[in-house]
Amino acid sequence: MVEEKIAKELRAIAGGDGYLDSREDLLNYSYDSSVDEAMPDAVVLPNSTEQISKIMKIADREKIPVIARGAGTNLSGGSIAVKGGIVIALTRMNAIKEFSKENRYAIVEAGLVNLDFQNYAMKQGLFFPPDPSSWAVATIGGNIAENAGGPRGVKYGVTRDWILGLKAVLADGTVIQTGGVTFKNVTGVDLTSLFCGSEGLLGIVTEATLKLLPLPPFKQSLQVFYPKIDDASKTVARIIGSGIVPVALELMDRVVINVVEDAKKIGLPKDVAAMLLVMVDGIESECRNQVRLIEQICKEEGASRVAIAENETQEEALWLGRRSALGCMSQLRPNCLLEDVTVPVSNLPVMIKGIYEIATKYNLTIGVMAHAGDGNTHPMIVTDKRDKEEWERAEKAIGDIFKLAVDLGGTLSGEHGVGISKKPFMNLIYGEAEFRVLKDLKKVLDPNGILNPGKIM
Amino acid sequence: MVEEKIAKELRAIAGGDGYLDSREDLLNYSYDSSVDEAMPDAVVLPNSTEQISKIMKIADREKIPVIARGAGTNLSGGSIAVKGGIVIALTRMNAIKEFSKENRYAIVEAGLVNLDFQNYAMKQGLFFPPDPSSWAVATIGGNIAENAGGPRGVKYGVTRDWILGLKAVLADGTVIQTGGVTFKNVTGVDLTSLFCGSEGLLGIVTEATLKLLPLPPFKQSLQVFYPKIDDASKTVARIIGSGIVPVALELMDRVVINVVEDAKKIGLPKDVAAMLLVMVDGIESECRNQVRLIEQICKEEGASRVAIAENETQEEALWLGRRSALGCMSQLRPNCLLEDVTVPVSNLPVMIKGIYEIATKYNLTIGVMAHAGDGNTHPMIVTDKRDKEEWERAEKAIGDIFKLAVDLGGTLSGEHGVGISKKPFMNLIYGEAEFRVLKDLKKVLDPNGILNPGKIM
Predict the structure, then answer these.
(1) Looking at beta carbons, which residues of chain A come within 8 Å of B184?
(2) Distance from B66 to chain A by nearest Cα, in Å?
(3) Global pTM?
(4) What is the largest CA-CA distance in chain B?
(5) Which of A140, A355, A285 is nearest to B283 (CA)?
(6) Domain end: B184, B215, B246, which one?
(7) Fewest C-beta in 10 Å: which of A54, A181, A231, B356?
(8) B454 pLDDT above the threshold of 80
(9) Do B180 and A434 touch (CB under 8 A)?
(10) Are residues B179 and B311 in the same domain?
(11) Cβ–Cβ of B441/A160 closer than 8 Å?
């Protein structure tokens, strides 16, 4: 519990309805989309950067941990209050403060929901490329803290690529403004990128300047089925190697297809080994050319069926299975461990084969989805944390998966972040020197170690 | 001078021909492409990261300044040894260590010349988007240190957008590896971006992992002349606002056109107020559509002549004037002060008008070039540093230009960096809080302050 004297100070800043500390309220902020849980001591819902600055001054003075949080769609435990403390929920700060159509940027508050912004921008003929699968609820601030990716990352990259500047509150309450509104800007050191993906360890992002793109005039998707998964992943490597840059290139394996079909009855064939979803965008004639070329590659690599969407309704139908996948897998058993190891695309076939061997070795059900065009692989282990013996096998399997990814030239996380869940494996990537730099940066920006303690390192 | 005891140690590391300290040799490393000059005490030409690590250990122990340097094409004085010390020239480290066509990345040493790499990559059907105008000599390491831009930045962004990972040597000789080879990677904090554009203040980049793109199959350029410069800059804002994303959108004003035509006799009309160069790339039909649309916008905005390149020879001819511009301007008088203020594109007309008013106010010749599609404006003041009174006027004019850019929502530097030349104006952008963060980062990574002292802050 937060001492009453401090609670009073926090209430004075955020207002009575901006401070929560009943057990019921705290429970709502005790988990995110990972498997981890921990109770915070209090939740504050500020309305402004100034309020957050004041809260940080108190927290720093009292050495109370602070965890910034958006919608809690985080998959690596990054928003869990592992050491208790104050959760600052940014959901009330959701304004679009500035929108320049002619200069293609917007300044928004961190608590704005990604999809709400997309809908707004779309009306102006623009879009913000980052599209995490959780975008219907995930906030821009959360996207930035995790440097979130999404299906269209193959063509458009990740969140950091689209952030021009940030307003952030440091551990001691200092407010800084990084970057600006121009697309080119090398005035001073790139503090913007340092905060993107820093998982709340270095400061709390309260506002962001987003770089936008014109909406492409046309898009078209293919849904492709394979009797052999190896042929599907070879297709991915061949498409990427061919020079085509699709918007999205997604893979779902037999396990996931079957789970989705059982739950949704959308007509997916249950006897195939894998499905690819490929989307291209741009001008219509170019898209149609690319689709033809992709179809040819798919068939040459052994696809048994290729469906091409000819209108928006068909587009939606093709993507429905992919969109439902995590939800359906999560309903299968009490826990679904979703990882996001990333390997060079040419190693995707070996990575997927390796995941199946690991599933067999530990007698586990592992479904595989992938933002395959990026080599960003999502093995999903459905399990039950209460079954201690099975849980141990699942944890061992994850360790093996991480080691395999690194052996294949890859990395632990493409888009979900390290948080709690990948912390034990950070030494596969960071050596003593890299840890020292990270600790030094943390120490100098947050000397009392109050910002999201217990994460990454 | 470096003490003989230390010189001996450095010679033992880099070899006899890898250590220079004669006055003639030092003079070669006393300047870059800015107007500043200062003599280093020694120059070391290492062959490996390990050698640089050893050099740094000595420099840190002895508290000797170290300035890393590529080809010295820097325009803001970033490679000048303002406090003496050791210049580490990376030009011998120019290997392409790994090239993956299928996964579209390359690992190269920092001293590799940008254009040498482009030529290599082109043979594999790929390219590295950053194209600073100095690319025929500028090194990848220099591009990274300055986060260099170039004409095709409008579509493809700047150096940082294409760096997947770095090997860097810290002030104390520690070697760190950031990032990896995958396009998506959020394992740990983004140290890669922190080093990109840090102008040698935080560490010395020795190797970089570059992200590559497939070569577009077609490109086409337009050369457009205007009787009124305002119409040219309005065209720029309209093209960008229309949703077309050209590769390059360059502007040259009457002053520059006349200087280039006098020097090169390439048939540029001397009575126009401005020239635009626009390039699009992609598939041929799309390019031709875009060119038609751009031509229409240009004519509607008052263009007096539009030339469209129909083959590679014509492409080269159209771009020749732009490529020669800085060289021709520099030959006009002893000094050419080239700045790179950047404003939102919609403010480009006001920025250019303001520059002309400043030229009149201080009775100076200022030519204007711009990567106009980015709002990245290059006012070029031709002057003579030896004429104290004129030099003072030039310096005042630069101050006014910086203030105007910031008033218009812009920034000091789009691609050249701060170095020495923009240091006095940093407080237009950084407040106390941002300076404190920068100083803190510097202090923790370089406690003895030996890395490129006297720059940025």
Answers:
(1) 149, 153, 158, 342, 371, 374-376, 414-415
(2) 19
(3) 0.95
(4) 71
(5) A285
(6) B215
(7) B356
(8) yes
(9) no
(10) no
(11) no
The Cα–Cα gap between A56 and A86 comes to 10
pLDDT at A332: 92
d(CA B411, CA B92): 35
Residue (of B3, B96, B109, B125) closest to B51 by Cα position: B109
pLDDT of residue B243 exceeding 80, the answer is: no
Q: Positive or negative CA dihedral for B111, B112, B114, B115?
A: positive
Residue A253: its H or E element: strand A248-253
Q: Are residues B432 and B357 both part of a single domain?
A: yes
pLDDT for position A244 = 85
Quote the CA–CA distance of B312 and B318 in Å, as a whole number: 10
Query: What ipTM score was computed for the predicted complex, to two decimals?
Result: 0.94
Domain of residue B437: give its range. 332-447
Distance from CA of B369 to the nearest CA of A (A): 16
Distance of residue A107 Cα from the nearest chain B Cα, in angstroms: 13
The closest alpha carbon to A338, from A354, A347, A327, belongs to A327
pLDDT > 80? residue B267: yes
Yes or no, beta carbons of A426 and B187 under 8 Å apart: yes
Q: Which residues contact B73 (CB under 8 A, 6 or more apart)?
A: B32, B33, B132, B134, B137, B138, B142
Give tens-digit pLDDT for B272-326: 999 999 999 988 888 998 999 999 999 999 999 999 999 999 999 999 999 899 9
* Separation CA B232–CA B234 (nearest Å): 5
| H or E stretch covering A164 | strand A163-169
Q: B345 and B303, same structural domain?
A: no
Ranges under pLDDT 50 in chain A: none
